[in-house]
Design goal:
This protein is an alpha+beta fold. The chain contains 8 helices and 16 strands. The two termini are about 15 Å apart.
Length: about 280
């Protein structure tokens, strides 16, 4: 596999990447791989090998995948994934599993398709990004050892004390949605991760993202909200609004964001723009 490179985030999968690397070395002769030391290091590795590599494999969670993907946007290079994160939303949506044999077979066939991505004030996202409640949850979650149980604990604690954010849209057609919300999500795919479907009807290749506006709801409604989210049944109701958009501008009174599950600080005004068919992914 002379034209394949493997990029490993050593902090994913509870920092236990060595079994993957051992298996890779058994099944691939002299594989080209990089154990990432930083985002800048990953960028440098891809840049150094860009002309010689056809398929770049990201081993990690959604944040790792996004870091690799931003170097491949609007090129003919192919992104592949070996999921090793806490939620693995993007890999779930693109049907990658943690089966190395299956991944190597896909790489050998080297079939790919174009998917959309989007930017938030110029910063790339490939899966789901957001602000408000979930931005705060991600900020607090990064202080823990991660894992689904910790995510639920942080979510409940944050929900009980969180004050809604204020959103003001700048385009006239969306101003009727100005108001206070528990969270605002931008969904290129259907799920956050862990099969929590925040936008069940979102498509990865329609030139649109689903803007999901969620009002703060009574705690009693949270069980129904969770049930619908985990069964792909969330829909427009008195608390949830879906707006399919290709581009949108708004202001929000918080700087706490997550982009593909990674905490970011983003200033208002916010400009969201879809990049149709910008990412070439292995299938």
């Amino acid at each position: 596999m002379e034209k394949v490179a493997f990029i490993i985030n050593p902090f994913s999968a509870k920092k236990n990447y060595q079994p993957f690397l051992n298996e890779l070395k058994k099944k691939v002769d002299d594989p080209l791989y990089y154990v990432s030391e930083s985002i800048e290091g990953t960028d440098d590795f891809i840049r150094d090998h860009f002309n010689d590599i056809d398929v770049f494999v990201a081993i990690g969670g959604d944040g790792t995948i996004s870091t690799v993907a931003k170097n491949l946007i609007n090129t003919d290079k192919i992104l592949a994934v070996f999921p090793a994160g806490s939620g693995n939303g993007f890999s779930n949506e693109t049907k990658f599993s943690d089966n190395l044999d299956g991944l190597l077979s896909k790489i050998k066939a080297k079939k790919s398709r174009k998917l959309d991505s989007f930017t938030v004030n110029g910063r790339l996202s490939i899966n789901v990004s957001g602000t408000g409640f979930d931005g705060k949850v991600v900020k607090e979650f990064e202080k823990t050892d991660r894992g689904f149980k910790n995510y639920i604990k942080v979510s409940i604690k944050t929900f009980l004390n969180y004050k809604p954010i204020k959103v003001n849209f700048l385009e006239e057609e969306y101003k009727k949605y100005n108001g206070r919300y528990l969270m605002l999500n931008i969904a290129n795919t259907r799920q956050f991760g862990n099969h929590a479907y925040i936008a069940p009807k979102a498509s990865k290749s329609d030139g649109l993202v689903d803007l999901v506006l969620v009002k703060k709801f009574p705690f009693a409604y949270s069980l129904l909200f969770a049930y619908r989210m985990f069964t792909k049944k969330l829909k427009d109701d008195e608390y949830v609004t879906y707006l399919p958009v290709s581009e949108v501008n708004f202001e929000v009174n918080t700087k706490n964001w997550h982009l593909d599950g990674e905490f970011n600080t983003i200033e208002s005004p916010v400009h969201v723009k879809v990049l149709p068919g910008s990412l070439n992914i292995l299938i």
